[in-house]
Amino acid sequence: MNNSILHPAIQEFIIQNTGADLTKLALQKNPFPEVEWISILNQIEARAKAKEKLPTWFAASDIIYPSKVSVEQTSSEKTAFYKASLISGDNLIDLTGGFGVDDYYFSKKFKSVIHCEINEELSPIVAHNFEQLKVENCTFFQGDSIHLLEKENKKFDWIYIDPSRRNDAKGKVFMLKDCLPNVPELLDFYFEKSDSILIKTAPLLDISAGLSELKNVKNIHIIALENEVKELLFEIHKNYSGEITLKTANILKDRTEVFEFILGEETFPIYDLPQKYLYEPNAAIMKSGGFDEVSAFFKIDKLHKHSHLYTSDNLIDFPGRKFEIQKVISYNKNEMKNEILNKQANITTRNFPETVENIRKKWKIKNGGNLYCFFTTDVKDNKIVLICTKII
């Protein structure tokens, strides 16, 4: 860890230049020749990345940032806060601590937290930053977490793991066995050390693939931030066997949209033609695949088995986007020429044979404006366009 970066004059320079054009800055002469110019520039770039994602770190003094890639890959504070709300206890061990954002929030829910990090540069940086952030119940272990677990002669309330994909796994279908640590292989060993394990994975992991590799899964959490899925969490408990609950959360500025259902439970959606209102589920629900469950739970009609759009005559509170349908037209030359040709509109396709790009080009539709057009297929297998206005 390069402590010279903490010199007050250098810290002031980093703060003053956060958000500056780094290409221009890089061409300037280094005002602090005792520290590598690239190190200072890296701090400026990483701090700028942290402004929205990690406001607590951004606001604190004398924070040291790792590479901007580490900042990009870490949990945001909002998802870490939500994650910490799911579990609690006396002690937690994080086997893949990274930049420590998750552990910062776990430390508020557990009496003690152990942060393990294999990267010998990153571990002391996190320890230093936690001092600055006044976190006093976290200890740090630099090295392979397996060694610490083997040495520790006690059980933990929770083990937390965020496995990372091995470099040689690029291009393959994403599987947990292709990550470090190899959780499926180590699961029995982990259960000797804790009865409860929380595994974070990247959003591109297929849920059924995760379930095929893991056992004793009780809950799967899908966490989206501003309608972009950020992470999946597999919550597993030793000796658990039973129904699996899928819990979705879409964290927005002013609220969190939540929806949950039991995986594999038989549900009976209702299908109908478009009515007065249209609903599009948020990204977390889309990832969950719980499309029939949405129809059954909210008592709203599905437009088609594969369209994943819903409709009702009365407006309901819904976890996703809501629209008022102004007009429904058939997707044919005459109707399109009369209603949409040369217009400005936001376009979405669901269960439709053409791409948004092709539709725009073909019908000369400019992007933006207050109109929202959904190109989809109805329950009678007709290609239709729903012309809508958005309900805020």
From TrEMBL:
Residues 277-319 form the PG-1098 ferredoxin-like domain. It comes from Flavobacterium chungbukense. Residues 320-390 form the THUMP-like domain. This is SAM-dependent methyltransferase. SUPFAM superfamilies: S-adenosyl-L-methionine-dependent methyltransferases. Pfam families: PG_1098_Fer, Thump_like. CDD domains: AdoMet_MTases.
